[in-house]
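Course exercise 7: structure representation. Students receive a sequence record and must write out the corresponding structure in C-alpha cell form. The form below is the worked example handed out in class, using Peptidase S41 family protein (354 residues). Read each field label carefully; the graders check that inputs and outputs are placed in the correct fields and that the protein name is recorded exactly as given.

STUDENT ID: A-19
EXERCISE PROTEIN: Peptidase S41 family protein
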Amino acid sequence: MAAGRHGKWVSTLAMASATILLLPNALAQAPAMTDPIPAQTARDVVQRTIQLVEAEGLYPRNQNEYASAKARLLAALDGTGVEVDRQSLFQHVNTMLGTLDADGHSSIRPPSTGHRVQQGLASTRVQGTASSFALVLTAHGVVLHWTPPQSMGDLQTEAPLFLQRFHADYATTPGADKACALVVDLSAQLGGNAWPPFIVMHPLFGQDNAAAWVGRDGKRTAFVNPPQLRQMEARFKGRADNPLQRFAGAPLAVFVDQRTSSAGEMLLIALMGEGPRTRTFGQTSYGATTANVAHRMADGSMLALTTSRYAIGDAPVIRGGIAPEVPTRPGESARETLLHAATWAAQSSPLCRH
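STUDENT ANSWER:
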C-alpha cells in the first residue's frame, strides 16, 4: 500500500468540450472504464497523495524522476470528463510512488482489494487453522515454538482476533506451560499489519530496546514501547496472563527465512533490538525494510506511504534483507535449522537449568 500528497492541476474542460463537438463519435469509441470514479474524487485522491508524499514520505531517489512521474500523473487528470478510470489512474500514482527511495514499498490499492483481503483473513482467524504453537524437544529441555500468523487489515478488526487466537492456540497445546525456552518463528510474516503480533510480544521487550525508526531527515525514534504495548493489549481485550511473560529477559531464538517481509522484518528488528540475548537463525529476510503509514483516501482506497527506515541503536540504517547470525547450512532443511535454534535457546535459558 502507499500514500501520497496534494498538488495542482490544470483544467481543460473547455478544450475537452470543443474536442467532443469536433469528434462526436469519440466517446462512443472510447474503451469502457473498468472502475470509474467521479473526476472530482480522483482529483482529491491525487492532491492528497502528492501532499502526503512531499510532507512525510521518504525522499525520491532522483528528484527529476519524481517530478516527471508527478507531471504525468497530473496530466492524466487533464481533460477528463465526469468520471475517471481508477485502475488507470492508480497505475500513474504507483509509478510516482515508485520513485521514492522506499524499496518499492509504497503503493495505493482500491477499496475492494483491501476489503476482500481483510474479509478472507479475518475469516481464517475466526475459523482457525493449525495451531501457532508447537513444542520442540531438545537434549536441554522442551522449547516453545511460536509462529505468529500473518495479520492484514485495520488494527481495530485484527487485534482482537489475533489475541483471541493467540490464547486459544496456547491453551490447546498440551505441555506448553512446561516449556523452558522460546523460539519465535517469523516465516509466516509475509507482510501486512505488524501491530497485532507486536502487541502480543510485549513481554519479550525491555525498556532499553534499541530498535528505531529513522525518518527521511535522519532523526531516530525508538518504536518499542512496552508500557504502550501492554495498554494496547488491554484495550483489545487481551488477557493479563500472557504466556510469553515467563520468557521476559531470557535468551530468545528467532527464525526467519526469505519470505519474512515488511511487517515481519519490523518484528525481527524489534526483537533484535533486545541485544545479545536474541539470536537469529535461518535465511536472509526479503528486504522490505522500510516502515509505512496507512492513509484512507476520499474514494475509500488505502495508501501506504513509506515514511522511515529502521536502525538498531547508533548502527547504520538498515537497507535490504537482514542476514541471520546463524545461517541455514547448505543442504539443511528449515526443520533442522529450527532444531538448532531451539537447542541454542534451551542451552542458553536459565529456565531450562532448573
